[in-house]
Specification:
ten-stranded mixed β-sheet; 43% strand; mainly beta
Amino acid sequence: MKRIFYSVLAVMMLCCAACTRSEEEGVLPEGGKSGQKVFVRIENVQVPKVRMIEDEKNDKAESAVEFQSGYLFFLTPKGQVRTHYSIVSNEEDVDDEGHKLSLKQIQEGHTFTGISGDVSKVYIVGNVTSDELNDKDIHSGDLPFISDIHLKKISLGNQHADNMNHVALAGIEGLTDGGAGMKEATVTLSPLCARLEIGKITTDQTILDYKLDGVYVAGFYEKMPLNQQCVESDWVSPDYATSDVEAELKTFYTRYGWMADCIEFSKVQEQTEDGHNVYSFYPEATQSKKWAYPFFAIEEPAEGVEPYKGHLGVHLLLKLSGMTVKLYDETTNSWEEKKLEGVRYINLNRFVRSHSAHADAVNFYNGHIYKIDEIKFGTTNLSDKIMPTDVSVKVTVSVAPWKIDNIYPAL
C-alpha cells in the first residue's frame, strides 16, 4: 500500500535573536522583548466544503484533508507552551492582539514577532471542536505543557460530522538552522484518525443467494486523547453476549448510526474466475462508492520504536438474511441445497496484509486509509451470534496518509 501523506505543511522561518527565557520562571530577560521573528505559512490546504457511503480516497490532491481552524503552539525543549495563536476560518474573527489569525493569513504567510528565544518546537492541532479544545482551556493556564494539551480528548463523531475530508489534524516539529541567521521548521499535519474503506461484499460458491441487511462497525473507540493512546473506558460496542441481537443492534446504532449502513444496497450477479455465479453487494449501483468509516487507531511509531500496546483495533459485522446455501452431506457424499431461516452474521475482528494463513495482524495507525477491496465469505464463516469467542474471521486490508494500505479480512 502506498504510504502517501495528505499533509498540511506549516513552514516556519525564524530569525534568531539573542534572547533566552527561564523555563522554570517563564520570564524574558532584560532586553529580550523583541524575541524571535517567526514567519509561518501553511501550504496544501483545501478550502472548507460543506459527508459515509463515499467516493474512494486516493493519493491525489482532491483527497486532501481540509484545514478549517486550529491552534499553533510555540514550545520549549521541555514542552512548555511559551505562546499560542488561534487559527480561524472567518476573517471577521481575526484579532492580532488576541492572538487570532485567519487561515488565509497563515496560507499566505504571517510573521510573528516577540517569540521567546528558547522556543525550539512548533505544535499545531486543527479541526477540533470547542468542546474538545477551546480558547478558555488555553487561556486559563491549565494547559502549560504539551503533555497537558495531549490529555484533551477528541470525539469520533466529530470525525464524521460533515465529511471525511474534515478530521482532526496534528503535527509537531523541531526548529533547525536555516542558515544566514535563520531558523525554520516544516510541520506535517496528519489526520488523528484512520479510515476504513470496503469495496464490495461477495461469497464463495457455497452461498447460492442472500440479502445484505447491514454493515456495522461493531467495536471502536468513541474518544481519543491527543496523545493517540486510547483507553479501554472509551471503547464502545454492542453487547456481544446479548440474547436478543436484533434489539441490541437497534439500540446501539440509534446512538451510533453513522457507524453503520442498513439501506438497500446494489446486488449484482458476477462470475468468478472458475466460472461460478455468485451474488455481490456494492454500496451503490455505480460500484464506485465505498463503505467508509472513521476510527481511532494509534500513532505510527518512528522506525525502531515499538507501537503503543493495548489498542483493541476495530470490529466489523455483516448482517445477512434470506440465505440459500450449499452444504456437504458426508453421509451421501453430495452437496445439498438448503434455505437458512432467520438472520446470520459475519464477524470480522482480525485483519492482515496478505491472504497467508500465517500473516500477522495489522497494526492500525492514524493517518492511514485501510482499503478492503472485497469481503468474501462462505458457509463456514456464518454465525447466529455477534463476535462470539469461538469464531474468528480473517480480513486482509491495504493504506492512504492520508497513507493507503490494502488489507484483507481474516476469513
